[in-house]
Write a structure and sequence with these properties.
Layout (H helix, E strand, L loop, with lengths): L6 E5 L4 H12 L3 E6 L2 H11 L2 E4 L5 H15 L4 E4 L10 E2 L2 E2 L2 H27 L10 E6 L3 H4 L5 H21 L4 E8 L5 H6 L5 H5 L10 H13 L7 E4 L6
Parallel strand pairs: 1-2, 1-4, 2-3, 4-7, 7-8, 8-9
Antiparallel strand pairs: 5-6
Pfam family, one: adh_short_C2
EC number: 1.1.1.100
Keywords: Oxidoreductase
């Protein structure tokens, strides 16, 4: 896909993977709308890169519908959706004070899984009405999972379940939307230097990075953004979840 003047939406764009992805897309010439529940943070990123800021709770149907409508009015229907929203915490199922509050589990499913489907359904509806490009493509939906979907650790049952749902969604969604010329792809990052990692790993230190076969460091959000751009440009990548983890298996 040629990204020049291409309408694109990036969620979770106030920081971390989303902010860096939005930066790379604008540098590639895309017309980017950045979405996040953090209104001040997303406006700051938008001002830095020349994007449209839209505060939004992407797990809420009405809020997301309004955000997509605002992006459409400004730039046209998006051919690219990169969904980078994610929240994590490391809580045991049963702790010293008793069972994990059910609301903690529900919140992770809302933020990580329901928001992914919510944005996917809305973006796909717009993409389906677009004229196909020369290769028949109408759009690309890229969602962010996690290696915890495959190898969740003790205390990550809720987080792993929410991200596992994202992984399970990619292939059937690609099969359903493929005939419309819409590709669906997932990226499962490993240990990246983002707030989500810092929230989950309370005792973060260099020993954790040294467990990565190579390179022996946390991932840089720019490396995530570079993979996003490759996926968008390579039409044969579809229906897969790509691990981006330096070979890290926990």
């Amino acid at each position: 896909m040629d990204l020049w003047a291409c309408p694109a939406v990036v969620t979770g764009a106030a920081s971390g993977l989303g902010a860096e992805t939005a930066r790379y897309l604008t540098e590639a010439g895309a017309k980017v709308a950045v979405i996040d529940i953090d209104a001040e943070g997303v406006q700051r990123v938008a001002d830095e890169i020349g994007a449209l800021a839209i505060p939004c709770d992407v797990a809420d149907a009405r809020s997301a519908e309004q955000a997509i409508a605002m992006a459409r009015a400004a730039h046209g229907a998006a051919r690219v959706l990169v969904h980078c929203v994610g929240r994590g915490h490391c809580n045991p199922i049963v702790g010293v004070s008793g069972p994990m509050p059910l609301e903690d589990f529900r919140q992770l499913v809302e933020v990580n899984l329901i928001s992914t489907f919510n944005m996917m359904r809305l973006a796909a509806a717009d993409m389906a009405g677009l004229q196909p490009l020369a290769n028949g493509e109408r759009g690309v939906i890229l969602s962010t999972a996690s290696v915890s979907a495959y190898e969740g650790q003790s205390g990550e049952a809720a987080y792993a379940a929410s991200k596992g749902g994202v992984v399970s969604m990619i292939l059937p969604a690609s099969r359903e939307l493929g005939p419309l010329g819409i590709r669906v792809v997932g990226i499962a990052p490993g240990l990246f230097g983002t707030q989500t990692l810092f929230d989950m790993e309370k005792n973060l230190d260099s020993r954790l990075a040294r467990q990565i076969p190579f390179p022996h460091r946390f991932g840089d959000p720019a490396e995530f953004a570079m993979l996003v751009l490759h996926v968008l440009k390579n039409v044969m990548i579809n229906g897969s979840v790509l691990r981006l983890d330096g070979g890290y298996h926990r």
